[in-house]
Amino acid sequence: MVQKLERLRETASQTGGPYVHIGCLPSFTGITSIFPEDLGRSPIAEGARGEIVTITGSVYDGTGWALRDAMLESWQPDASGIFPGHEGADPAVSGFCRFAADKDSGEFTLRTVKPGAVRARDGTLQAPHVALWITARGINVGLQTRIYFSDEDNSADPLLARIEQGPRKQTLIAEATGDGSYRFDIVLQGPGETVFLDM
Amino acid sequence: MTDPLIPRDRSAHPDAYDPGYKTSVVRAPTMPLLSLDSGPTEETGPVFGHDLLGPLDHDLTQNFTQGAGLAMGERILVHGRVLDENARPVPHALVEVWQANAGGRYRHVKDGYTAPLDPNFGGAGRCMTDAQGYYEFFTVKPGAYPWPNRGNDWRPAHIHFSLFGHAFAQRLITQMYFEGDPLIPLCPIAATVKDRSQLDRLVAPLDMAMSKPMDFLAYKFDIVLRGTRQTMFENKPEGA
Ligand SMILES: [Fe+3]
């Protein structure tokens, strides 16, 4: 016998199910009397410093069908790479957004400020990115990934450098389509499968 | 929080692919997840103030009507603690819940179950943990409901939970079940949790000590979120 490790195990995840919007984006389901507004309606307030960008995409399953019931959350720093709540952070950037795939088209839109590069603990710079978390019916553990930007220099990013297969890196890079707009599709399974993070 | 997170123990969780839960089959990634050490992106997260909460947010028996009418069903208090893997309380964690009504029906266009809607029940609520990690909300016990999966699958009574700790990578969505429900061992979604002790931890015991005579029963549901690796001499509480 050895001594016991006094550590608890994380509670098991369960799928958010088909009605995740009731709890997370109630107005999406027509429930408007409980809360004044849904949580995380926008990651930025009026006057946020930096370039406003719009990221549009869909979440595809293994058959190529765009999920109509996906719910997504994003988290990011301000245009200087400072996370909300930290010294010098832009007070107009909350950094957090909750949004849903459209119930008819499956398309989502995230309007935010383009984040700045982030300095990691070891001093290395990470290319500008937005963290993304995806939940839906059939997803047993929420999926973590990142959105990078095709018009930024991503060559030295430590996370992208960890991905051996060049084409797979592309799954994390939103393609600039002009006028501050980007396309970022997520593929849950199969050819072009998005890189998800063990995080 | 800017301490590195303890890497996620994936054996505590369901696999992405579970043929017993058919929808997971086409929604499960097949490639291995990319492992990395946590950094600022994962270790920070949105902070929600107590001013977010309205007076009835944590009372699902009243919040849909804002007190004008009471929901139908067995009145229950659900309470517990949110701790991290180091057994420290997680204060100011946002706990969001949603559930079916007492008849097993969700207020959702896609729910076509025969059980009727309750005009006084919306099915959503939220609360925050206090400095010791305690939370509680008040609701009615949800009913079991059938769902299209295999020939005759029913969900045990359950409440969906969504949790924010202090780090974006602590995000967790899970479900709470009720002690003694015979449908739990038959449920393919509960069965995605392969580790029996992990599944048992999703089942809330009846807590008569916290119930109130002639008013409500209580169930206790404790939740553990991911913790951080900390140096031994730096014993600061999480979130400080
Ligand atoms: Fe449910």
UniProtKB/TrEMBL annotation, chain A:
Pfam families: Dioxygenase_C. Transmembrane segments: none annotated. Residues 48-190 form the Intradiol ring-cleavage dioxygenases domain. Keywords: Dioxygenase, Oxidoreductase. GO terms for molecular function: ferric iron binding; protocatechuate 3,4-dioxygenase activity. The keyword Transferase does not apply. Belongs to the intradiol ring-cleavage dioxygenase family. This is Protocatechuate 3,4-dioxygenase, alpha subunit.
TrEMBL record, chain B:
It holds the Pfam family PCDO_beta_N. Residues 1-16 have a biased composition (Basic and acidic residues). The keyword Oxidoreductase applies. Residues 44-227 form the Intradiol ring-cleavage dioxygenases domain. GO terms for molecular function: ferric iron binding; protocatechuate 3,4-dioxygenase activity. Residues 1-23 are annotated as: Disordered. The keyword rRNA-binding does not apply. Residues 7-37 form the Protocatechuate 3,4-dioxygenase beta subunit N-terminal domain. GO terms for biological process: 3,4-dihydroxybenzoate catabolic process. Gene3D superfamilies: Aromatic compound dioxygenase. SUPFAM superfamilies: Aromatic compound dioxygenase. Keywords: Dioxygenase, Oxidoreductase. Belongs to the intradiol ring-cleavage dioxygenase family. NCBIfam families: protocat_beta (TIGR02422). This is Protocatechuate 3,4-dioxygenase, beta subunit. It comes from Tranquillimonas rosea.
